[in-house]
Amino acid sequence: MKISIHRRAALALPAVLALPAHAQTLQRPARVVIGFPPGGSSDVVARLYAEKLRGTFAPQVVVDGRVGAAGRIAVEFVKGAEPDGTTWLQTPASMLTLQPHVFPREVRYDALVDLIPVSTVCSYPFAFAVPKDHPAQDLAGWIAWAKAQGRELPWASPAAGSAPHFMGIMLARKAGIEMTHVPFRGAAPAVQELIAGRLACFIGVLGDVSPQQGEGLRMLAVSSPARNPRFPAVPTFAELDQPDLNKDEWFGVLLPAGTPDAVVRALHGAIVAAAATPEMVAALDRLEYAPTVSASPAAFADRIRQERADWASIVRYSGFRPEN
Predict the structure, then answer these.
(1) Phi/psi of residue 263, each to 5°?
(2) Per-residue model confidence as pLDDT tens digits over 106-117
(3) How far is CA 227 from CA 19, 86, 197, 232, 247, in A?
(4) Are residues 255 and 277 part of one domain?
(5) Does residue 323 lie in a domain region?
(6) Do residues 52 and 160 both lie within one domain?
């Protein structure tokens, strides 16, 4: 379950204030560990929350980058950290729900055993985009066009084994079309190839394609539960009879297993309060993100469990291997 921005403060702040003082604020500095380089979205979001949690959950909060192995080093580091609340993980959803199926030999952690889910901190949708001058005006028209081509169509995602990669497989399966996946290392080069007309479509994070909307490309669908306020003319996948593609990505916070429940609840409450501030809402909006938080740590754990199960069947169907 997710709490909307308007209900969030009303539901969470009384719970935060009801906690004993020692549970609200640690007496020692804390760090949020991320698995991606400085300057990226993971780093930016972590720093936004670190600033808000400084003085409300811990006297100091710093961002600690543990880069490597596509983010897995950071997860494993927090898995082995002292369970006292001074170290927590901020990670994208795919590290916990998708990668265990994509890289079963490399993943050496279980989010529900080795870690304690606390809350999501933000979410962001994916988008389906085509070149600006493509003849299709909507997703149904694009599918009809694809079927008429009589050949496998090249399409792209930001990386092999990523959520957009498998969303493309799901779309092709339901639509009954043949597509050849062209993986890239990041969205920027894929978007450039799309604009140049060398790809039939691209599926990736909304924020990676939205700057070119109406210029070099056109978005035909978004994966968010509702239409994006900045692009109200772009329908959701659910509106287009593709409900399985309504998948958003999120960043979530987790603590090492064994962390006391009072600390878990205090961190959850501090995150909920931080997410409700106008400054956080505005800062995340500039990234095309929404400050979405979990109703409780248990609700976040349930979400991880369900999404992990959903991705398992999708990855099995795809026949994906890491060398793909």
Answers:
(1) -70, -40
(2) 999 999 999 999
(3) 37, 38, 26, 6, 13
(4) yes
(5) no
(6) no
